[in-house]
Amino acid sequence: MWIAEMPHPEIIAGGGAIVHAVEVEGLTKVYPPAGKTGKPLRAVDGLSFAVAEGEVFGFLGPNGAGKTTTIRMLTGLARPTAGSARVLGFDVGSAITPIKKRIGVAPEASNLYDELSARDNLVFAMQLYGVPRPERGPRANQLLARFGLAEKRDAPFASLSRGMKRALTIAAALAHRPQLVFLDEPTTGLDVMSARNLRRMIAGLREEGVTVFLTTHYLEEAERLCDRVAIIVQGRLVALDTVDGLKARINRKPGIEVILADEQGVTETRGIESDDIAAAAHSMLAGAAGRRLLAINTVRPSLEDVFVELTGLSAQAMLQEKGGKG
Amino acid sequence: MSRSTGGYTLLTDDLRGLVYIGWKDLRAYYLKPPNISWGILLPFAFMLAFAMRNPGGLRELVPGLLGLTILFGTSSMEAIVITFERRTGAFERLLLAPVRLPALLAGKMLGGMIFGLTVTLAVLVVVMIAFGTDGVNWPMLFLALLFSAVAFAALGAFVSVTVKEVFEAQTLANFIRFPMIFLGGVFLPVTSMPVALQVVARILPLTYAVEALRAALGQGAGSLLGVDLLALFAFTVGLFLATVWLLARRLA
Fold first, then answer.
1. B2 in any annotated domain
2. Residue A77: which of B1, B95, B99 has the nearest Cβ?
3. Are B20 and A128 in contact (CB under 8 A)?
4. Looking at chain B from residue 23 to 52, which residues have their Cβ under 8 Å from any Cβ of chain A?
5. pLDDT tens for residues B6-19?
6. Distance between CA B75 and CA B69 in Å, rounded?
7. Confidence of residue A316 (pLDDT cuts 50, 70, 90)
């Protein structure tokens, strides 16, 4: 049976007010030691969080933080060592098949079939999920158009560019109209244009009411796309809030920055933190007599500031670590 | 609150997944001209080699030849295909789909079986034209081919989940298959071998496949076809369960 024909699963928890697409309680994954002298690896350590239906949920953390392991447990590719997880109201331990029918997963590596064309890859994805035959062709064409791949319809997956492969892998995860889609590092390693197109696509999913569980190590991406962001480090949840909520947590006032130039054209940037931006601007300009004013900017704490403060890691270090991995 | 899902739905999901996985593999990997020509060429190369040595005994070689064809046709590509997909990550797509593990593996086996049977039928047609159809028990021949194909497909799946790299899959498959060529009664009847080797022959599935084919082709005086089919079935079940178990363990 195809998902669209199924009654909407009852995923109303408790009094019926909160609807959770994902509900995780004390989720833990311990991998046995590699080799005789090694220690067991606690990849995920007592995670608890909930993802509301229809939200874009960001899962942010450095490489090796346990992001992918968490996704693997939520999608049935790995068994939790301890704790519980419910996806769309079903328990991952006892009802993984009904979960699988309702979710889409785009792993970090584009993993479609090299030998099949772009269109055939989408059709096969739909076949596996029981999309009725008459709907497969039109749906495949619609997805190809939406992801800018209409002209590559008959091209084998192997012949596509990196960005196109990524886009098609995400399209395949959406082919059976899942209620919840897991996107693991969707824009990693893509050129600027491809990444921008994909982000636009992900933003569009929210409009359609699809819940998006997104892992990323691009702070800017999380800031732009996500309703709420969970930050995990070494398998533990460090923070979980809206982007604005996270920013409000750190002790930095908004501020103002002015860029001035003297007669020789040498520029100077001055900054000041204050709750009263107007007063701050006034005082800074008063102290800049005789110079040319090039720009006045308001400065607010970024998600990057939050990340650095909460994790003690620099965002740059995180990106480099990732880049080193390939 | 947990919701029950009807066993019927699970079963239809599994069945649909099985068929489409098999069909996808056939399209993506098996039904490419080089595979088909290679699959058909190999048994005739064996036959030619044998014919040059002993032109008179070709007819007696037919059951062994069909057994070899179905063994290689079914297991070769399949073991490579599964290992390859596990390597590239494409296999994960199937693990994420609403298809349970045994059905997923059965789908993988289906691709190998259909390819193996297709190649074997092509060889069969040529053989029948050359040697005639006297004494052939068609229903039994059909059963013998089918049981052999399932058993060898299970062997291919088993090989693929015990290794990590494609070359290892090929090496292991050959390590298992080559002794069978010599001890499985293809060129030399099992009964004419030393007792120790006869014991070894009895633990090789090809022995039973060739015996069953020999009986179905009307050459096996007094051989027990039912026992052969039962033995092939036992190999299938054993290898299949071991494969499912190994794969499930990897997913823990």
1. no
2. B95
3. yes
4. 24, 27-29
5. 667 888 899 999 99
6. 10
7. low
Q: What is the pLDDT of residues B163-203, one digit of tens each?
A: 888 888 888 988 888 888 888 888 778 888 888 888 888 89
Q: Please count the residues of chain A.
A: 326
Quote helix, strand, coil % in chain A, to nearest 5: 35, 30, 35
Q: Does B1 fall in a domain? A: no
Split into its structural domains, chain B has a count of 1
H-assigned helices in chain B: 7-25, 33-53, 58-88, 90-96, 101-131, 138-162, 166-183, 195-201, 205-216, 225-250
A180-227 tens-digit pLDDT? 999 999 988 888 888 888 899 998 998 888 999 999 888 888 888 999
Mean pLDDT (chain B) is: 88
Chain A residues touching B15 at Cβ < 8 A = none
Tens-digit pLDDT profile for residues B212-241: 999 998 886 656 788 999 999 999 999 999
Asked if residue A214 lies in contact with residue A59, where contact means CB atoms within 8 angstroms, the answer is: yes
Report the percentage of chain A scoring pLDDT > 90.
Answer: 49
The answer on pLDDT for A326 being more than 50 is: no
**What is the pLDDT confidence band of residue A274, given thresholds at 50, 70 and 90?**
confident
Cβ of residue A244 closer than 8 Å to a chain B Cβ: no
Compute the distance between CA of residue A303 and CA of residue A252 in angstroms, rounded to an integer. 12
Structural domain includes residue B56: yes
Q: Which residues contact B212 (CB under 8 A, 6 or more apart)?
A: B140, B143, B144, B147, B148, B225, B228, B229, B232
The pLDDT of residue B4 is: 47
Q: Which two tokens stand for residue B68?
A: 């070899």
CA separation for the pair A91, A73 (Å, rounded)? 11
First-to-last CA distance in chain B?
A: 25
B202 within domain boundaries: yes
pLDDT at A137: 96
Report the 10 Å Cβ neighbour count for A171. Answer: 25
Contacts of B55 (CB under 8 A, 6+ apart): none
Q: Tell me if residue B46 falls in helix, strand or coil.
A: helix
Report the SS3 class of residue A22. Answer: strand
Closest Cα in chain B to A1: B9
Give burial (CB, 10 Å; 0-12/13-18/19+) of B191: exposed
Smallest CA-to-CA distance from B135 within B68, B223, B220, B51 is with B220
CA of B167 vs chain A CAs: smallest distance (Å): 19
Report how far residue B127's alpha carbon sits from residue B65's, in angstroms, rounded to the nearest whole number.
Answer: 10
| Contact in structure between A293 and A269 (CB atoms under 8 Å) | no
| Range of the structural domain that residue B135 is part of | 7-250
Q: DSSP string covering A27-85, please?
A: EEEEEPPSSSSPPPEEEEEEEEEEEETT-EEEEE--TTSSHHHHHHHHTTSS--SEEEE
Q: How far is CA B104 from CA A316, B13, B26, in A?
A: 43, 11, 15
Q: A115 touching B, CB under 8 A?
A: yes
The span from the CA of A229 to the CA of B100, in Å, is: 33
